Amino acid sequence: MALTNLQVRDLETVLHPYTNQATIRDTGTLVLERAKGIYVYDVDGKPYIEGMSGLWCTALGYGNEELAQTAYEQMKKLSFTHLFGGKSHDPAIELAEKLKEKAPVPISKVFFVCSGSEANDSQVKMVWYMNNALGRPQKKKIISRIKGYHGVTIASASLTGLPANHTDFDLPISGILHTSCPHHYRFAHEGETEEEFATRCAQDLEDMILREGPETVAAFIAEPVMGAGGVIVPPAGYFEKIMAVCQRYDVYMIADEVICGFGRLGEWFGSSALGYKPHSISVAKALTSAYMPVGAVMIPEEMYQATIIESKKIGTFGHGFTYSGHPVGAAVALKTLEIYERDRIIEKSAAKTPQFQAHLKALADHPLVGEARGMGLVGALEMVAHKPTKKAFEPKAGIGAYATMVAQEEGLIIRNLGDSLAVCPPLIITPEEIDDLFDRLARTLDRTLDKVKAEGLLGA
Length: 460
Ligand SMILES: Cc1ncc(COP(=O)(O)O)c(C=O)c1O
Fold this sequence. Notes:
Elements: H1 5-13, H2 24-27, E1 32-36, E2 39-42, E3 47-50, H3 53-56, H4 65-77, H5 90-102, E4 109-113, H6 116-133, E5 141-145, H7 154-159, E6 176-179, H8 184-187, H9 194-212, E7 217-222, H10 238-248, E8 252-256, H11 270-273, E9 280-283, E10 295-299, H12 301-314, H13 327-342, H14 345-362, E11 369-375, E12 378-383, H15 399-409, E13 412-413, E14 415-417, E15 420-423, H16 431-454
This protein binds pyridoxal-5'-phosphate.
C-alpha cells in the first residue's frame, strides 16, 4: 500500500519510540487526528476503539472538557513556577495533600516528576540516598523481577526485566538484580499449584537476598499486576509471601503503580487490590488521565527524614526536575482526582469488571489462545501455536504484530506484547462498548487463526 504524504513526512523526520525501525519503513504509521470518549480517529476520519487507553493511561477517555478548561485556566493564571529552593504554588500543595489522603499506606511527602521512568529513577536514587543517610552505605542493591516494566531511563530501564530494554544498551547497571516472574502459566512446574508456585517465587527472592547478603540489599520493586511484561496477575498469596521476605531482611518495598494506580484493578491503588503494603509508591499515567505528563513518588517519613539529614550534611537535596510539580500538570491531576471521586469512576469501573473479565475468559476457548488472564479492566490473551503444550510461535513469525494490525483494520487498537494481546480500555467504557470491543477482538483472533492455519503454523 502506498504511503500517504503525512506518513512519508513522518518517516523522514520522527524517530518512533518502541518501534521496529526497519519494518515501519514499509508499513508506515497510523496518523491520528482527534478523539472523543473511547474513540480515536485517523486522518481519514476512521474511528477506532482505543482498547489500550493509549499506553494504559487515558482512564477518562478523550475530549474531557473539564480537564481542558482546567489546563486553560491554569495556563492563564500561573503557567509556570517551579518547586526548587523554596518556591511553591497552590496546585502542587493541594495535589500532594490529595495524594496523601488517598494513599493506601502512611505517606509523608510527595515528590513530583513527569513520567513513570522519572518516578522509578527517583525511587532508586532516593533509596541509595536514604541508606547513606542512615549510615549503611553497603545496603544499595535493588531487586526487581524478570518481565517487570519500570521505564526506560538508565536506572528504570535497569529495573525493567525485558531483554529489548537491555540488549546493546549496556544495561542493566550493576547493583540491580532480577528475581523470578510470578507467571504461573509460563513458569510453574508440572502440577505445581498457584500457592506452591507463589511459595517458590518468594523462596527465589529469599535465596537471592541471602546469596547477595541481606546487608547489601536495599529494596524490592514490583508492579501489582505486571503490565508491559504481558499483563501478568500474580498467583494467590504471592505478595503476602514476598512481603514477609522483605520484612525479614529489612528490604524497602516499592509499589510501581504507574499502570495499576487510580482504578485499573478496581481500587484506588493496585497494591491494596492485591493485599500488600509498600513503603513507597510510584504513580503517573492515570494520575492525569494522560492529559498532562505528571508522575509522583509518594514517600514515607523515614525517607523524608533522610533528606533532612543529608541536606544538613550536603546543603541541599540535590534532585529535582524543571517540571517537577508543573502547575498546569498539577491542576489537571487535581481535577482528574476530583472527577474520579465525584463521578465514582473507580467504583463504577469495578462494577464493569465481571462483564469485561467474562468476555476475556470466554476467549480462552479460542484455538489460538493459550491463556486469557486479567484483573479489573485490564487483560491479555496469549496466543500459542499448540495449546496442550503451550508452545509459542517463533518470534520471527510476528503473529502478535499481525493480530494488532488486523485489530486496527477492525477498528480496534490493542497492543501486542510478544504474542500476548493486551487490552486496557478507558475506565469510562460503557457495557455496550465492552461488548463491541470484544466482538472486534474475537474477529481479530479468527482472522489471525486463518493466517496461522494457511501458513501451517498451528500445532507446529
Ligand atoms: C509499571 C510502569 N512503570 C513505569 C513506566 C514508565 O513510564 P513512562 O513511560 O511514563 O516513563 C511504565 C510505562 O508503561 C509502566 O507501565
